[in-house]
Amino acid sequence: MTRVSSFCIAVLLTAIALPSIAHDYREGEVEIAHPWSRPTPPGIMMGVGYMTIHNTGDSDIVLKSLETPRAARVSIHESMRKDGIMRMRPLEDGLTIPAGGSVELKPLSYHLMLEKLKKPLKVGERIPLTLKFNNAQVMEVELSVDSMEAGQEEQGASGDHGTMDPENMDHEGMDHGSKGHQGMKHDH
C-alpha cells in the first residue's frame, strides 16, 4: 500500500469516527446522542437541554435527576399543546426510556430546564451535565451550546421556550424563580 493511500484511509477513518466520538456517549446499555442547548440572552437565568436517550437493554430505565455546576437545579419537563394552549409540566417521577427504545428531548416536547443559571450560556461552550438513572449507571455528558439556527436545522424545531407565545402557556404550579422561562409571563 502506498503512503498516499494509507494516509487517505487514515483521514477517512478519522472523519467517520469523529462525530460519534465527539458528541455521543455510551455507558452500559444507555446511549446519549448529541446533547445540546441554546445560548441565553444576558439576564435570563433559565436554559434548556436536549438530547436523544437510547436504551439498548432489556429493562426500562428512568432518568430521575440531573446536575450541572452551571445551574442551581436541572429539571425534566414535558411541553404539549392542548386546546390551542402550550402547556408545560415537570416530570416529578422522571422520564422513562423503554427497553430497546429511545426518547428524544427536543423543543416543544420533553426537555431539560437549567434553572437559576450562574451565567448566560454562550455559543460554543460545553456544559457538563450528570444524568442519574434508576436501573442504569450515572452518566457524565456535555451539552454543546449551539446557535439558534443550528438547533432548529438539526432538530426540525419550530421553537422552544424562547419562541413560544407566553400568553398561551399554562405554567400552573411551577416554580422557576423570578425570571421564568426566557422571560415568559407566569401566572401562579
Could you characterize the architecture of this molecule?
It is a single chain. With 188 residues, the protein is an alpha+beta fold. It has one domain (24-170): Immunoglobulin-like (Sandwich), CATH 2.60.40.1890. It is 15% helix and 43% strand. It contains 2 helices and 12 strands. Strands 1, 2, 3, 4, 5, 6, 7, 8, 9, 10, 11 and 12 form a 12-stranded mixed sheet that branches. A hairpin with a 2-residue loop joins strand 5 (71-82) and strand 6 (85-90). The radius of gyration is 18 Å and the shape is globular.
Which terms would index this structure?
globular, 188 residues, 12-stranded mixed sheet, disordered C terminus, alpha+beta, Immunoglobulin-like, 15% helix
What's the SSE pattern? HEEEEEEEEEEEHE
**What's the CATH topology label?**
Immunoglobulin-like
The CATH architecture classification is Sandwich
Supply the number of helical segments: 2
Q: What is the structure about, briefly put?
A:
The protein has 188 residues and is of the alpha+beta class.
Task: List the topology elements.
Blueprint: H1 3-23, E1 24-27, E2 30-37, E3 46-55, E4 61-67, E5 71-82, E6 85-90, E7 95-97, E8 102-105, E9 110-117, E10 126-134, E11 139-145, H2 148-155, E12 169-170
Parallel strand pairs: 2-11, 6-12
Antiparallel strand pairs: 1-2, 2-3, 3-8, 3-9, 4-7, 4-10, 5-6, 5-9, 10-11
